[in-house]
Give the backbone structure.
Amino acid sequence: MINPFSKLGISDDVVNAVKDLGFENPTPIQEQSIPVLLEGNNDFVGLAQTGTGKTAAFGLPLLELIDFKSNKPQALILCPTRELCLQITSDIKNFSKNISGANVVAVYGGANIMQQLREIRNGVQIVVATPGRMLDIIGRKAIDFTNVKYVVLDEADEMLNMGFQEDINDILSTTPDDKKTWLFSATMPPEVRRIAKNYMDSPVELTMGTKNTGNVNIEHEYYIVRARDKYAALKRIVDFNPEIFAVVFCKTKLDTQDVAEHLIKDGYNADALHGDLSQQQRDKVMQRFRDRNMQLLIATDVAARGIDVNNVTHVINYSLPDEIESYTHRSGRTGRAGKTGISICIVNSKEIGKIRQIERIIGKQFTKADLPTGFDVCEKQLFALVHKVHNVEVNEAQIEQYIPRIMDEFAELSKEEVIKRFSSLEFNRFLEYYKNAPDLNSSADDRGDRGERGERGRSSEGYTRLFINLGSVDDFTRGDLLSFVCNNGKISGKSIGKIDLKGVYSFFEVENANVDSLFNNFKGVEFNNRGVRIEKTADGDGGGERRGGGGGRGFGGGERRSGGGGYGSGRREGGSGDRRSSGGSGRREGGSGGNSGGGFKDFSGRSREDRGGSGRREGGSSDRKRRS
Ligand code: AMP
């Protein structure tokens, strides 16, 4: 039987490569666009959501059209973010692995430019770039685009949203007039239309699905709650979906931190992703999410651009986006590659008008859903646990030796009794938590709006503020610091109050009752070969400067002890208060691994926040400057 990609005109080398990737049949966008693009003489506009297989839709035809005997750049792919740039590069490398002499380079900010220049000098046919760094390299006259035959503008709407219009103009002006331009965009606002008009000659237009319609695999739901109940509603949604793997969108960096911190404290496996994290920190967070070592990624719109993680089950709009168009991008993070997904909006009654606006834009109706009751959640969790126990893979070799003792322990109990007790393990925690759970649903005409922080806003009363000589220069996120303190201090995340992550040090609050044991447990704890120090701050310390110059990091203090006090394992130890710790989903991992490479190699005396500019997308400050 002829391979369906061969039928579309793709050569054997490439067909074999995509077979190795598990692509059996072309996705609809590939089916439609590959034959058109293979002709090589058309401009092209593809209106397609992310996750539909569009990289292969343009990548496979490009590989057929490029002359790999020449080592000159013949195709330039521009995309909005570093993440997407790396993803496209890796995809194209995979597609072209059987083509000898094929060279692809990724050009993006926030990484060593010399290495990129070297790769370009060595000869490449395909350049995948973010606009800022590309322009930088063009400015150095380090690349020759006179042989470029194809330019791909991927996620064109995003690039314009991010203020790259001028950069794109400048870059395109260095490419030949007779090149063909292929534009892909999830939405078609007038600015994108204008690009199509200005740069293209009667482009072939293909629309996947209905124009401006979100991915058909995504269901849209909204919940109406009082603003103060938003966080409780989020938790309830998460608890009701034990297998959730979600991106939660907030409007601001502070909100992402706030929500992530509270979720972590409440025992969830979450972390924040926003523009103020260093590139390294962001990579770490993303890697954990990609590896599914984290269940909830709390992100801002900008930081989440280019997130290309498959199998995201839910997108949760904790706050609605300011720009209604952004909703399409947010919801497009789920329902990728033919999977189904749910996009949820948690709104208050005043925001229903916005939901209607979004409905008009995406051409789809939202379902108004009711938040489950506490009882519903308990029931759902109970059966999730039962299911998990039923399906757990038993390591016969390892468990064997303990079976006699375990049998002994249960000798007096009937099978029914044992089952009841195992089931109760997790169930009790939920019962306890939800025993007096209120109905969080608010009616559309309930205008009660008493501020969002109600349930979460925990005052510092009852807490002691502590100094610790670790901070963001050690590659700690707030989540990392929380795990570190909980693991080493042997306390539950619930006992930790506000965390104030600084550069070389940080502050955090601990419930008064736990302060002494925390100090005891921290005796002798080290991080990267240096002693970790915790001190009480003076009363009235506003969280600003540490007395004594913030130094005393104790580099090299003391010999290295193996194991590092459990930090390396990154396990989130919930203690009895950690509702989710026994479910396996509560594992908090991965991120800390990155710390092992020598804590102060980045140490520059400035806090990480000082470096590289805030809100960077590509990491390079030069990119930032060009944003309009
Ligand atoms: P993209 O829209 O290019 O980001 O692709 C989304 C996901 O779908 C990626 O993980 C691709 O590897 C995957 N994918 C793309 N084309 C196919 C295909 N024909 N069959 C199966 N998976 C695919």
User: Anything to note?
Assistant: Residues 23, 26-27, 30, 50-56, 308, 310, 336-337 surround adenosine monophosphate (CB under 6 Å). The radius of gyration is 27 Å. DSSP finds 23 helices and 20 strands in the chain. The longest strand covers residues 218-224.
